[in-house]
Amino acid sequence: MRYFELFAVPVDYNIDLATINKHYLELQRTVHPDRHANASARDKLMAVQSAAEINDALQTLKHPVKRAEYMLSELGVDIRAEQQTLQDPMFLMQQMELREELEELSSASDPDTAIANFEKQIKQLNEQYSAQLAEQLASNNEQQYQLAADNIRKLKFVYKLRDELERIEDSLFDD
Amino acid sequence: MALLQIAEPGQSAAPHEHKLAVGIDLGTTNSLVATVQSGEARTLTDELGAAMLPSVVRYQAGGITVGADAVQAATQDPANTLISVKRFLGKTQAEIEQSYGQLPYDFCEDNGTLAIQTEAGKISPVKASSHILGALKARAEKSFGNQEILGAVITVPAYFDDAQRQSTKDAAELAGINVLRLLNEPTAAAVAYGLDSGQEGIIAVYDLGGGTFDISILRLHQGVFEVMATGGDSSLGGDDFDSLLVDYFKQQTGVSVLSPSVLRLFINKAKACKEALSQYAKVNVVLEFDEQKYTVEVTREKFDELAIPLVKKTLRSCRRAVKDAGIENEEVLQVIMVGGSTRMPLVRSQVQSFFDKEPLTSIDPDRVVALGAALQADVLIGNKPDSDMLLLDVLPLSLGLETMGGLVEKIIPRNTTIPVARAQEFTTFKDGQTAMSLHVLQGERELVDDCRSLAKFSLKGIPPMAAGAAHIRVTFKVDADGLLSVSAMEKSTGVQADIQVKPSFGLSDDQVASMLKESMSNAKDDMQARMLKEQQVEALRVIEALEASLAVDANLLDEVQLANLKAEIAELAKVRETAQQPSDIKAAIEKVDNASSEFASRRMDASIKKALTGQSVDNI
Q1: What letter would DSSP give residue B111?
Q2: pLDDT digits (tens, 9 = 90+) for A148-168
Q3: Could you say which of A34, A48, A59 has the minimum Cβ distance to residue B390?
Q4: Which of A124, B321, B525, B535 is surrounded by the fewest CB atoms within 10 Å?
Q5: Rounded to whole angstroms, how far apart are CA atoms A90 and A2?
Q6: Lowest mean pLDDT among B128-142, B239-253, B381-395
Q7: Cβ A59–B379 below 8 Å, yes or no?
Q8: What is the pTM of this model?
Q9: How many CB atoms lie under 10 A from the CB of residue B342?
Q10: What is the C-alpha radius of gyration for chain A, rounded to an integer number of angstroms?
Q11: How many Å apart are CA B371 and CA B40, to the nearest integer?
């Protein structure tokens, strides 16, 4: 997988972020456009493209959902452009409840504590759904890949909740 | 006594020749130019020894005055004396009036762009900025016995959006300056401090200038300055504190409607009062106009009371930036203060209590940005080939596209490291739809109306298909200067549309070109000569760059490719000597460029592989 190769790290969902970050800086030192400020137009263009790709690779590997989606697509199951297809009534029910809870946060009597509690819940769900991902993605088994895809879909819900929570926090700060 | 330079045996001195590059801080209130000499950055001064050039330009029928002389005229000739024009860059008249209220200018339109009517004609903010930049360029050239300035790093507030950055670059181009890089002001300040102390860790840069506020969180690590998050307000600065005092004066004197010249008097007095209050606990302001005389007493407590909401506003941005960086306040190792407004005791104490750390103020907050820019310019122009320094900046505001219902779909979120390229696919809404109009926006809000509109363009010639069948891929590219270009393509047919994002109220490339021509009042021949010279210089640069690459990496090409490339280079060298038309050289440069594309891409791949060899073995 190109992104893992780029940073010279083993292909594994459980990444070593410190090494990736270190190698990222080494790579940017080589390719960043500022390193080619006096080069030909063609070299400069190459530098911008390469630097952009390395930045994108880092963003992808850093983010648990993007990383999983990327790995899965490299394994032949691309779910990045799909419309929602998750069919798990239990899960969806739980999500709806969480959403309701989320909407009531800003009017809670003690928003700070309410937000902290909600954050804890999200963290728990995050751990639950990502726990099996590493194995599933390394399984070399089509059925496991489909399970991984479902796990990623669920993780996406969780991350959406997290983004929403952040927005609510921001709006509370801005008052 | 100047030291004699002696080259190593067998090497000519030429490769070590010091190239002249400058750093320019184009500020709202004051602008500066700095350069590196003998390894040390210093600001360049005018004949009177002043480093700061007031960012004020006066336009009279007889000519243009920049700087202190223009400031003198501000009270008597407010309508023709443009002050703080940086605040107007990339803005519409409505936005300006909403942000700054009553201003003594006669706003008008010039070819669809905002301008101010003066005795010397319609002057756009870009043009006024170019006159300020031109004055600094002239100062630098004069300091070095008319040696040519080969390039400049120009600083912009980190929070500047695409329209404001593009305007700044246009202004530099108009002034005949080769822009090496647009650099964010806080990053420049960090460079000035960072190289000084060799610090490692997370630092915050709090930059409150004349018209803008920026907060940036950076990580310093072995010469790499990595911006983790940035935030701020592109229309909050010292001028706003002045305007609070102006309102206070109005209230105390009971004079609410001011003529332009009295308004200017009030603003000048407010500025002086604010500055004095940094030293004294109480200031008496005397306002004399229209044969009336008022004295207003302002205590520091009163001023703090007026100013605290604005300072709190800056702290909210700080909190968000810290959060975006994914860190806690305690992790910030140092806080750097930049900008004249950080001299206000209230600002210092509030920032200190927010970060629980005494802020650093050892480098003059007015000059620190220019000094940092000069250090970066010195590296970029190639005077320090062994430098480890690398600046990794981020996109300050999210970029997105308008979708159905007036909503904004974010394509690149704020604080993404640049350069960056990102694509997103969209589809048609109606059966048989053959065109799609794209509206590019920048900002954090969800509604189109709350974001800044950067550009609108359309993709035409989509073959008629059922709704949802066409796949339109829109690609956003942001370069290291933070400037955006957008392209769109229908995937099945390859129908394509490209645009350089130029805001509807900014300048098109043609406009910049025609203004350039206008500004060169001389005959057409001079223009031709200048363009020929420019192409000759460019050709030489291309040849030298390629020869240097070939000396190292010729083995990446096979014999035929190598011979082909060398032939094109030789041809360019010949054309460069003999051509009379700039376009001939340009064509030859393009041919070399095409012939070298494979070489460029192989070299980049090879260097990427090389970058991690040696350490990767242990890790796999």
Answers
A1: T
A2: 999 999 898 899 898 888 888
A3: A34
A4: B525
A5: 37
A6: B381-395
A7: no
A8: 0.82
A9: 20
A10: 20
A11: 9
Identify the CA nearest to A81 among candidates B471, B406, B440, B412: B471
Amino acid making up residue B614 = G
Task: Give me the half-sphere count of Cα atoms (radius 13 Å) on the Cβ side of residue B506.
Answer: 25
Q: Measured between alpha carbons, how far is A9 from A6 in angstroms, rounded to an integer? A: 8
Q: Which of B162, B173, B185, B239 does the annotation list as catalytic?
A: B185
B392 vs B388 pLDDT, higher one: B392
Nearest partner of B325 among B202, B186, B187, B199, judged by Cα: B202
> Tens digits of per-residue pLDDT, B465-514?
888 888 888 899 999 998 898 888 888 777 777 665 655 445 555 665 66
Give CA–CA dist B561/B355, Å, rounded.
59
Helical (H) or strand (E) element with B345: helix B345-355
Q: Which tokens hold the place of B171?
A: 């202004």
All structural domains of chain A: 3-62 (1.10.287.110), 89-174 (1.20.1280.20)
Q: Which strand (E) or helix (H) includes residue B529?
A: helix B524-553
- Chain A residues in contact with B593 (beta carbon < 8 A): 40-42
Give the closest-approach CA distance of B376 to chain A in angstroms. 9
Among A42, A11, A52, residue whose Cα is nearest residue A134: A11
Are B365 and B340 in contact by the 8 Å Cβ rule? The answer is yes
Peptide bond into B463 cis (omega under 30): no
Sequence-ordered list of residues with C-beta below 8 angstroms from that of B581, at least 6 positions apart, any chain: B532
